[in-house]
Specification:
Elements: E1 2-14, E2 20-32, E3 36-40, H1 47-54, E4 62-67, E5 70-71, E6 79-82, H2 94-104, H3 109-122, H4 138-150, E7 156-160, H5 168-185, E8 188-192, H6 196-202, E9 205-209, E10 216-221, H7 233-255
Parallel strand pairs: 3-8, 3-9, 6-7, 7-8
Antiparallel strand pairs: 1-2, 1-4, 4-5, 9-10
The structure holds adenosine-5'-triphosphate (ATP) and magnesium ion.
Adenosine-5'-triphosphate (ATP) binds next to β2 and α1.
């Protein structure tokens, strides 16, 4: 059953000089319930824009997006977002940042504490629970931001390069944890990354966008069962294929002048 349905979505921004910038062009994509889908593509091809539209944070210029066949008209509790840079409340400690959504949702205090302690442990933030964002490193802030979203247990999680500022070892731990959460709780995940092998390692499906204006260039289905390894044959093969196809993407950019 489709969880997220993106139908003919296009996005045109106006830049500072009043010129139109087409960020996305006619995107059609269905993400099934419980599926893990990654979006990859060159910088500026519209990945963050697409995520923000699915999150209901900005409108598409054309087309529609549906969650469980209901149009998405604004942000809601069913969709959790981890942004490209963690937007923590500077006046709240790590613990209080993690509590924020649960306070709004009126989760009982005992349950809040249980979940916060679990995620502090998971994210390696136990010693920083009572620190403010300004006292953390960039990677720690990012981990606190990830925890703040996952702790709410949303139906659909949208993640925009969530691990980019995290060290290698923590990144592997977080990738494994994300897969574990995805597998045990059958959550739908839409994930944006620049790291092709990360996309292939984590996803059921990887979508490659062309250079701006982003259109779907190619789609890859990864069948190897989790847990996967970067050295699995299929992972190596598909990663290499995507990298080759990205360099072919320049042709799509040139082709646009002939449309
Ligand atoms: N608010 C805005 N106003 C005008 N143009 C914008 C705005 N936001 C994004 N753009 C433009 O839209 C295009 C897509 O931007 P977007 O941030 O979605 O790309 P991206 O694929 O996420 O890039 P990156 O990989 O670097 O994060 C870019 O050309 C960008 O300059
Ligand atoms: Mg982006």
């Amino acid at each position: 059953m489709p969880s997220i349905r993106i139908e003919n979505v296009g996005k045109i921004y106006e830049d500072a000089d009043g010129n139109n910038v087409t960020a996305l062009n006619n995107i059609n994509l269905t993400i099934n319930d419980g599926e893990f889908v990654s979006i990859v593509g060159p910088s500026g091809c519209g990945k963050s824009t697409l995520l923000e539209i699915v999150a209901g944070l900005q409108p598409a210029t054309s087309g529609n997006v549906y969650l469980d066949e209901k149009p998405i008209t604004g942000p809601g509790r069913d969709i959790g977002v981890v942004f490209q840079s963690a937007a923590l409340f500077p006046w709240r400690t790590v613990r209080k940042n993690m509590a924020y959504g649960m306070e709004i949702a009126k989760v009982p205090k005992e349950e809040q504490k249980k979940r916060i302690d679990k995620y502090l442990d998971l994210m390696g933030l136990k010693d920083f629970a009572d620190k403010y964002p300004s006292q953390l490193s960039g990677g720690m802030r990012q981990r606190a931001g990830i925890a703040r979203t996952l702790i709410m247990n949303p139906k659909v999680t949208l993640m925009d390069e969530p691990f980019s500022a995290v060290d290698h070892l923590t990144r592997s731990t977080l990738q494994e944890e994300l897969i574990r959460i995805h597998q045990t709780e059958k959550k739908t995940v839409l994930f944006v990354t620049h790291d092709i092998s990360e996309a292939v390692l984590l996803s059921d499906r990887v979508i490659l966008l062309t250079p701006r204006p982003g259109r779907i260039q190619e789609e890859y289905v990864i069948k190897t069962k989790q847990p996967r390894s970067r050295t699995d044959d299929e992972i190596i093969k598909i990663s290499a294929q995507i990298i080759a196809d990205i360099s072919r993407g320049a042709e799509f950019k040139e082709a646009e002048y002939f449309i």
